[in-house]
Amino acid sequence: MLFSSLIFIFAFLPAVLAVYYLVPRSGKNTVLMLSSLIFYMWGGVSLSVILFASILFNYLFGLWINKCERGKKVPLVIGIIFNLLMLGTFKYGNFLIENINHLLNLAGINPVKDPGIILPLGISFFTFQSMSYLIDVYRKETPVQKNLFYLALYISFFPQLIAGPIVRYHDLAPQLLSRKESLSLFANGVERFIIGLVKKVIIANQFAIISHEAFSIPVDVLPQSLAWAGMISYSFQIYFDFAGYSDMAIGLGLMFGFHLPENFNFPYLATSIRKFWKSWHITLGQWLMDYLYIPLGGNRKSNFRTYFNLLIIFIVCGFWHGASWNFLLWGLVHGAFMSIERLWLEKNVLNRAGKIIPALYTFSIATFAWVLFETKDFEHTKGFYKVLFLGNDSMLGSNYLSAVFKQNFLLIAIPSVLGSFGFFRWLNIKLTAIMPEFASQPIVKGIKVAVMLIAIFTITLLLISNTYNPFIYFRF
């Protein structure tokens, strides 16, 4: 069930909210638990067994770690291996067999049968959350949860179950036990949810029209102009798609009285790849920092070891996103630029070049790297980059690009691009400085409500006409 679907917006969510606010305090978590299970099982009852198994086994591993006065590392290692095996089997099983079959074909041996493993939704996210819980219990950074119900609700909490933000147990646990709902918090949640819907349905899906066309056409007939337009469009598509989902997740949390962590902070304004990862998918970057980079030694050892650690975490980051060599290469690109920046580029060039040039540098690196996300394999990737820089003899030409760009595209694209680079945040700061009570004026509040209603109406029309597609990060 998608957040950006009619059944979720007009049936599931209103029903859950109604029951949640009608039942007494003691029953609210039960409503959330049942709602989360229904939400997840909507995508397939059989695959829900994986989620249930993850909950049960991580609960038992947590108790085991807590019980051991000595040798706590043994149950921790077993628990981590269990989670990685589960993730590896369902996310990387097909990829592994595919590569084994490639080697067998080279050796003239009959290939292994394709297992046809189906990827359970959200497995990358709830597996990382489960592992962070076990590690935090081992480090004594959080008390073990002895009540299976509360751990199950933490792992399966539907606002962030499918695509994050990745929430630490010690951040959510206190809110499971005690939280305060309020009308203002609920209103903020609704507003944030609608903003996320706008980013996804109205903005990201418009950019998707261009990017899908560019990446679907065979590279031997792909016009160079469309390749550039498609690559840049995909860069904005993936930002608004994922940031929109995160906004919706955070908004849903607020509606139920929860405060989920922010996941984006204008990443395309970042003046280095290092800073990009402090503002893009913030919760994943922090997870990799706390549970992989620092345990590996971080930057506390030799320079060689620091660069090695950076490459390791970005290899993991790449494979976390998907089971293909393209994702590995994408991770290596980011890791390589992080290392180059640390070595000399950031200190000697970027920090002395103002803000515009470093921001353009970061946006360019991120955008060229996104090609690896959307191309099918190395051959497609190589061909796409070749068209970008060398062009080809395609007869489609600029007229084809003009046909792809619909008249209303620029009306959405231009303000969206400005927004992604923080223009409206800057404008809001300036207006607030000039008129401190600007946002609290009744007419401004009325305009905001009207805009929200128009947005919901427009989104509904778009969803009825089926002009939407699943979130990109649902694939991960």
Structure description:
This protein has helices at 6-22, 25-41, 45-67, 73-106, 123-138, 148-156, 158-161, 169-177, 183-216, 224-255, 273-276, 282-293, 303-321, 325-348, 356-374, 378-390, 397-404, 409-420, 423-434, 442-464. It is mainly α and 476 residues long. The two termini are 16 Å apart.
List the helices and strands and how they pair.
Blueprint: H1 6-22, H2 25-41, H3 45-67, H4 73-106, H5 123-138, H6 148-156, H7 158-161, H8 169-177, H9 183-216, H10 224-255, H11 273-276, H12 282-293, H13 303-321, H14 325-348, H15 356-374, H16 378-390, H17 397-404, H18 409-420, H19 423-434, H20 442-464
Short description:
This protein has 476 residues and is an all-alpha fold. The chain contains 20 helices and no strands. Helix 3 crosses helix 6, helix 9 runs antiparallel to helix 10 and helix 13 runs antiparallel to helix 14.
Features:
single chain, 476 residues, mainly alpha, 2 domains, 20 helices, 72% helix, 0% strand
The level of helicity is over 70%
Q: Hey, roughly how much beta strand do the residues contain?
A: under 5%
Alpha carbon gap, first and last residue: 16 Å
Number of domains: 2
